[in-house]
Design brief:
139 residues, alpha+beta, five-stranded antiparallel beta sheet, 5 strands
Length: 139
């Protein structure tokens, strides 16, 4: 077998390297993060296989004062608010609804409204995701 010179590779340089969708998705999430007054150091964007984002929020929900809160987004279902259960798993509490990619200002307003102390997020199923402390289990 004869090895050719480095320039002898059969490479198709017409491959489409268009990353405009990735850039637009990252910019969209950056605008939401900035609108919330966050730095983005606790957020994550992925674009494959589907665009999605995780944004850790400052503050707590009044019903879940001991649980971290995050905004979740994916290109199909839009934005939701989730809390971490005692095992660190995210439990979705409420969806924004409507357009899966609303204007960043609409996302910011919605998220800020949920973090107000007088707002209640009703998710009766949440208790099923939060294991009881070992000491509280009765035999």
């Amino acid at each position: 077998m004869e090895l050719g010179m480095p320039g002898d590779l059969d490479i198709d340089f017409d491959i489409d390297f268009d990353d405009s969708v990735d850039r637009r998705t990252r910019q969209y999430v950056r605008e939401v993060v900035a609108g919330l007054g966050l730095l983005g150091d606790s957020s994550f964007v992925e674009t494959q296989p589907r665009a999605a984002a995780y944004v850790a929020l400052d503050g707590r929900l009044p019903e879940f004062p001991d649980h971290d809160v995050a905004l979740l987004w994916n290109e199909l279902t839009g934005w939701s608010v989730a809390v971490e259960d005692r095992l660190g798993d995210l439990v979705e509490l409420v969806r924004q609804g409507g357009n899966p990619r609303p204007a960043p200002a609409a996302v910011v307003s919605w998220a800020d409204g949920l973090l107000r102390p007088d707002v209640t997020v009703d998710n009766r199923d949440f208790a099923a995701f939060v294991p009881s402390p070992r000491g509280a289990i009765l035999s």
